[in-house]
Amino acid sequence: MREMISVDGPLNWREIASVAEGARLGLSEPARERIVHARRIVDALVERGIRGYGINTGVGALCDVIIDRENQQALSRNIILSHACGVGDALGRAEARAVMAAQIANFAHGYSGVRIETVEALLTLLNADMIPLIPSRGSVGYLTHAAAIGLVLIGHGWAMQGTERLSGDAALSRLGLAPLRLEAKEGLSLVNGTPCATGLAALALAHTERLFAWADAAAAMTYENLGSQANAFAELPLALRQSPGLRAVGKDLRDWLAGSAMLAETAGTRTQDPLSLRAVPQVHGAARDAFGQVAEIVDRELSSVTDNPAVGGSPEAPEVHSQAHAVGAALGLAMDGLAVAVAELAAISERRIDRLVNPLVSGLSAFLAADSGVSSGYMIAQYTAAALVAENRRLAAPASLDGGITSALQEDILTHATPAAWKVHAILNNLEQILAIELLAAVQAYDLQPQVRAKAQGTAALYGRIRSVIPAYRDDRPMNEDFDRMRRLMQGAADQQKSTGKPL
């Protein structure tokens, strides 16, 4: 049975990521009461004719156009239809589920004013794994992604259940639901806020955390093949630099390399090793420290109300507050920072790959080929890694500075939080590919060592696991097929990694 996560207080990024990966989501009774209470406030605002943005006014540059009560349902419906402007390939299942989970969590704070029926319909879609098709491009911050979810709720758009594609009304019918007739403010709330960026950010954090462990494992295997200082990652000297991430990476490397006869034999043959080997704790550790800061910001965002307007007070004394909480500046900056950190991990991995394949520095067969000249071995694999690092460099340019002006000067500063989060996923996919290449190259390097010496227990176990799936490379098959096998091995180890923090 799938794990059930209950929305009571604010969710954290790990819970959003768990829902993205298949956990069910439910509302606690206090959360339900908050949602119902906020709806009563909206109903009171409508009844009294108190002006509220998107409740009884137009949106964007039309915010001063008053909408009479008879047309407020039409306003909500029209907002969904007109804001469904996304283009491009659809988000993956996990990404779409993450956005939906963050959206529900935002409503559960009790300041949006959507009806409980609307939130329950979203939960029904999510828990039935009936996933709206959300175009991935066309957002400067929010709006278009969320509108694609709203479309399905009103019987339009498309959804996927497994491999089956259904129209919005067919998807609802299968789940025993009728298309919603949205009430005042619901159309705006369904497209508003930062759940798109927050959901994507939570999933990016989960992927990053998994790849941290693989990055350390790959670095340890490369170091064992090429390094010479047996105590390069000793605890006492590393502690001289204040960094929780550095300490964690140092411990990981010591665990991986404990008892290595290979390092014991080569110890002291160089005064110090190249930076791509020696500085692994400093570089990987800095990325982990940046990760911690980003995770804190994402959790803070999940604890925040990001709808505009927010409603408060009571049905007897209703309040509506127009503010800019839907602007995702904090998330945009955080995701830009995570993009650079992840790209840096990829860059140092590619440098280690280059050292493994370069006979001028490795002391091994050129390009890790058993028959150099006739065979090219890992020569072009390093080219691939270099190309992906270059692509990451382009992707890591800050989205939060892209700017732009929309809605007839009404929205004249844009922070691009959703695109910032989206491009982290592209960089992470490249990092995973590069680490797969490094792991395979390191395993090949073990096979080509001039002397048979005992590996560390940790690296020996990982070597055996990889070789049980992927044999030594002899220019006898397309190399990218090996990369795909290695990535599947990495992805398949996720459950074990959650419990132990290690790839094995």
From TrEMBL:
Keywords: Lyase. Pfam families: Lyase_aromatic. GO terms for molecular function: histidine ammonia-lyase activity. InterPro entries: Aromatic_Lyase, Fumarase/histidase_N, L-Aspartase-like. Its EC number is 4.3.1.3. PANTHER family: HISTIDINE AMMONIA-LYASE. This is Histidine ammonia-lyase. It comes from Sinorhizobium medicae (strain WSM419) (Ensifer medicae).
